[in-house]
Amino acid sequence: MSKPRGPYAKTSAKRQQIIDAALAAYAEAGGRNVSLRDIAQRVGMTYAGVMHHFGSKEALLTAVLEARDAAAEERFGPAAGNTEPPHSAVLRHNASTPGLVKLFVDLAAAAAEPDHPAHDFFEQRYERLRARLAERIEHGVADPAAVDAAWLARIFIAAADGLQLQWLLNPDIDMAADIDRLGEALVGQGWAAGSAPRRPAPDAPEGEGPAPSP
Amino acid sequence: MSKPRGPYAKTSAKRQQIIDAALAAYAEAGGRNVSLRDIAQRVGMTYAGVMHHFGSKEALLTAVLEARDAAAEERFGPAAGNTEPPHSAVLRHNASTPGLVKLFVDLAAAAAEPDHPAHDFFEQRYERLRARLAERIEHGVADPAAVDAAWLARIFIAAADGLQLQWLLNPDIDMAADIDRLGEALVGQGWAAGSAPRRPAPDAPEGEGPAPSP
């Protein structure tokens, strides 16, 4: 896709700059809260200037989580040649960005409210994640007819979300190891790459955004 | 334990009345938000009056979730003679109280912040739930040495929390059925009662509070 030109290009570039600053602020925040003023400061703007580009705090945070999902898809999706089960790779990465994990669970919980600005985003996000993971499981196992891929996808995504909640309260929990064992118990080893042996997740390319909760 | 008398008894009874009203308000709320004013109105008090008894909205909501946990323990715990795996029974019940499920995920997410007033409550809650469930699994399976009960407890609790998040966004998901299948896949059928056959959860005694997320 060619880059948009004219006034939209400028707005879009500024939006992206704010999203990147917010991703960085949350990634570095650990357990602490991030204020919109912190984010505005990082891009040399005022609070009102940031709001002008997004309309609301929820809209900005939703855009941040969308960007995080896109970065994770690029980094841990099938196209990246990642042969680990996707949840292991993502959870291993997420353990280094508690601020973004916290933002995710916060917003996902709030978005359950039907009128919440991020409601549609989360509804569609889970539909998409479940469909993609189910497809990946069906392609990865030797006998797709022997597994209920839709159920497995719901369970893996649920366990990954719930482990993140427990881990935020007790960082001693090894989320990736726990989900690895679940994958082995329910689907068998190496399913993410058919029968290929697993290898560690590739190092992140420089400057790449953090990964979403799976 | 005998009931406290004197001024404390009065305060305590009023606190309990507010907690019960809040439980009812959230249980009936569906996906909608509940305001402290709604709760105050149910007990014929002002907002300030309710705040006088709890100090903060977070403290009241934490007390509500504590009461919900206690009710679920009474209703679905081993002492209740419930032979279903505890998560199935609790999730089946929770599906009728989306407002309380939403309150739970909201507050659990917010409480990940170390300075949040409910942080200690949630930290201890998960420690306790994990320890209890692990113990129950060890007692329920034929060969305790063959299972990693601590891992299973983390996974069941995580899956139950995560399924509730997905269910809030898509009520077509059958949380109890999904967690039942997980129990069967990981531990085998009937583990909650040793080798006893499972039976439906008993009906709730009248006036009992709603159940917590597991």
Protein traits:
homodimer; 214 residues; mainly alpha; Tetracycline Repressor, domain 2; 9 helices; disordered C terminus
Structure overview:
Two copies of one chain form a homodimer. With 214 residues, the first copy, chain A, is mainly alpha-helical. The first copy, chain A, is 63% helix and 2% strand. The first copy, chain A, is built from nine helices and one strand. In chain A, helix 1 (7-28) packs across helix 4. The A-B interface holds A 31-33, 102, 105-106, 108-114, 119, 122-123, 126-127, 130, 151, 154-155, 157-163, 165-166, 168-170, 173, 178, 181-182, 185-186 and B 31-33, 102, 105-106, 108-114, 119, 122-123, 126-127, 130, 151, 154-155, 157-163, 165-166, 168-170, 173, 178, 181-182, 185-186.
Q: Briefly, what CATH class of chain A?
A: Mainly Alpha
CATH architecture descriptor of chain A: Orthogonal Bundle
The rounded distance between the terminal residues' Cα atoms of chain A is 27 Å
Label the structural class of chain A.
mainly alpha
The strand count of chain A comes to 1
Mean pLDDT of chain A: 83
CA gyration radius of chain A, whole angstroms: 18 Å
Taken together, the total number of domains of chain A comes to: 1
* Oligomerization: homodimer
How many H/I helical runs of chain A?
A: 9
CATH homologous superfamily placement of chain A: Tetracycline Repressor, domain 2
| Most extensive chain interface and residues per partner | A-B, 40 and 40 residues
| CATH third-tier fold name of chain A | Tetracycline Repressor, domain 2
Residue runs with pLDDT of under 50 for 5 or more positions of chain A? 194-213
What is the global morphology of chain A?
elongated
Helix content of chain A: 55-70%
Order of helices and strands of chain A: HHHHHHHHHE
Largest sheet of chain A: none
